[in-house]
Amino acid sequence: MSPVDGMMMHGTKMKRPWAVLTVLSMYSCSVCILVFSEPDLFDDIYHDVSAHHDAWIVRGIAMLLGVQLMFGPLLGTLSDMYGRKSILMACCIVHSCMTIGLAFVSSKYLTQGVYLLLATLNACFAMGYAMASDSVAKTHLTARFGLVTAAFGVGLTVGLVVGHILWTFHNKAPFGAAMGLNLLGFFIACCCVHETLDEVDRKPFNSIWQAYVSSLGLCRRQSNVFAIFVFYFCVHLAGTIHVVMYFYANYRFGWQLSDMLVFVSFQGFCLVFCMTVALTLLVRMDPTNRHLVLGAFILQASVFAATTATTRGWQLYLLFAIGMLHAVGFPALRSICHQLVHPEDHGTLHGRLAVISTAAVVIPCFVQFETWL
To answer: Domain 15-200+207-372, what fold?
Structure first.
């Protein structure tokens, strides 16, 4: 056993792993309830469909990326110092307070608030990945990371459907449901989630500023991860096709918002299946993470290319039912990065990966909206 493996195995065994996954699923569901109903809420609550609506969206996207760049890696580094649960609880408190505030505040800052929820959700998931990695050997990392990703898929599948249904009853109903899910998730996190990082494995720092500087220097300390960061960004960047899928389906097949909600919910279900059943079967075949990543990349490129040749809307369901298998490459790539860095930088790494995935999603949106303005 290598020294790194020994340090990984030395960590506290993760008690009640279902608790973290449940909390992440609830928080993901609460955000998806708001995000997918937010455009209708904006127009319905404020009766304003034209007054710089695009400008507000651009500002929200810029704020999301800015907050992630400032605090994502820092929160990861702080978890390496003070433990995972304390930082997870802090993220949960901020996330819950923002949801409660949005439920009671009627303001055009609603849009920015919803985007900021995405930033705090990413921070919670970064802690989830770090906690998952503390308690398993490297041979089980990919499967464990897949379960954390599946938690997001559960929230995606349930959240957008629930949000749209609740909005048909009352324009504030989604906020009430999101607030309830957040409070319940916070209660579960307090009572059932246990610390996974031992005191002896924590990183010593003298100040928060020193931790912040350290969070920015990961690539300098671990230069071999930079190329993987670039590839990680590119793979997520290709996934932004989902951002424009609604416009594509509306133009080619006449899909309306309700049709797209069903399709995205179907994608969320496929994601959960791939991250649990499919990934488990693949791991039993004992492939390397490199093979999983390369196969996923080829499949992703093939499906996106085939999408341009579709002539019927139902063909998209068939393509993405198969194509969502490319998602198994994300936990495999994360596992590769995780094994390249020193154990004391694991929290920093997952905070940095959260920033990269956010940047890959919001930068194309930012450029697109700026082009329209």
So the answer is: Growth Hormone; Chain: A; (1.20.1250)
Q: In sequence order, what E strands does the chain have?
A: none
Please state, in angstroms and rounded to a whole number, the distance separating the CA atoms of residues 130 and 209.
22
N- to C-terminal Cα separation, the chain: 57
- pLDDT band of residue 6 (cuts 50, 70, 90) is very low
What's the pTM? Answer: 0.83
Residue from 371, 341, 268, 367 nearest 65 by CA: 367
User: What one-letter code names the amino acid at 368?
Assistant: Q
All residues at 6 or more sequence positions from 165 whose CB lies less than 8 Å from its CB, including other chains: none
Provide the angle, in degrees to the nearest 10, between the axes of the packed helices 289-307 and 314-323: 170
**CA 297/CA 325 separation, integer angstroms:** 10
Q: Is the dihedral of CA 4, 9, 12, 15 positive or negative?
A: positive
Residue 44's pLDDT is 45
pLDDT(19) > 80: yes
Q: Cα separation of 291 and 296, whole Å?
A: 8
More confident residue, 113 or 237: 237
- Which pLDDT belongs to residue 129? 92
